[in-house]
Structures are given as C-alpha cells and as structure tokens.
Amino acid sequence: MLNFSIVISTQQSSHNEWMAFACWYSIHYNLPNNKVAVAFPRSFKHHQFTWLNKCHVPYIAYPSDATLEQAVDTLILNYIISTPLIIIKDNQMVIREIKDSIEGITLAENLKSFALCSSENSASIVDYTECSKFSIEDWKKTEQKHPFYKTSQLVDIKRTVNEQRVFKLWKQMGTTFDFLNR
C-alpha cells in the first residue's frame, strides 16, 4: 500500500456534510492507514460537521478570501498532513485501494485510477454525481437528508461494479452517520 495523505474538499451545507462523510468513510474503509483532513471555506450558515470531531478528523475552515491551495499549505505547515497528497472532492469516493504513483499534490480526477461511477472501467476513485438512478442535482432539489437508506431505490438493474461498490458503502454508512450526528 502506498503512503500518501488525502484532503477532502467540501462546502458547509447539509448536503455537503453527508457527501464529505461518504468520502471520508470510503477512505477510512479502503485506505485505513492514510492521513486524512477536510478543508472547507468558512460560512455564516453555522452548519456544523459534528462527525469530524467525533471521528477525530482534522479539518480547516479557511476564510472566504483564501483558496483551497492556501488551506492545504496550512495543513502541511502544521504537520497535519504531508506530501504526497491527493485532493478529493466530496462528490467522489474511494472504492478500492489506490495503486497510482502519487507525487506532490495531485487532484483525484487526474489519477489514472479515477473514473465516473457509471464507467465500466475498474476504478479506485469514482465521481458519483451520476450513479445508476442517482443524480446529485436531482437529489439536492427534492431531498433534505442523505441517500444512504434509499440505495435499493437508486440501483438500476444494469449497474456497473463501481456503482455497486458505491451503493454498498452507502448502505453500510447510514447508521453510523445518523449516530454521529445526533
């Protein structure tokens, strides 16, 4: 297993909270020995990511006039994470061990092992924006909570292995997410 750090890039909102949790859970499940931190711009919405503290995940809420790159530099300078480093968005999940060679700071979508969830290619990191019957934009418009308990409604008969792995992880993480956020 390769040793690298991971930063989850997210926003402060109820939807981004479950998305960031899904991303973190997938990393914790598939890469349990890698250092992980979360970075998001500070918001006046005061939406708390309570699971971060309960799971002992370091994070930085950076000022709105700062950039993600500056936040990552701060995490590195404070020895919270180190390079090599992957920056992963909250709408992406790690569904297999990553075997790519990582150098410096790399965006997840630039890795050879990255794919869209619907891809037939076996991937380590997938973007689940469109995953079987699930569409993140449609979900945000119609639902208030996470989709973790509704996987059976979101799975299509013709699904890829990547989609199956995402839904399997979602099904596993629902109870944990609810427990951590009560």
Could you name the key traits of this structure?
182 residues; alpha/beta; five-stranded parallel sheet; 35% helix; 20% strand; globular
In DSSP terms (H or I, runs of 4 or more residues), the helix count works out at 6
Uncertain spans: none
Give the topology string: H per helix, E per strand.
EHEHEHEEEEEEEHHH
Q: What's the shape?
A: globular
The fraction of residues assigned to DSSP E strands is 15-25%
Percent in helix: 25-40%
Radius of gyration: 16 Å
Order of the strands making up the biggest sheet: 3-2-1-4-6
Average pLDDT reading: 91
Q: Topology of this protein?
A:
Elements (H helix, E strand, L loop, with lengths): L4 E5 L4 H17 L5 E6 L8 H5 L4 E4 L5 H10 L7 E5 L2 E3 L10 E3 L6 E3 L8 E3 L2 E2 L2 E2 H7 L8 H4 L6 H20 L2
Parallel strand pairs: 1-2, 1-4, 2-3, 4-6, 7-8
Antiparallel strand pairs: 5-8, 9-10
Outline of the structure:
The chain is α/β, with parallel strands linked by helices and 182 residues long. Helix 1 crosses helix 6.
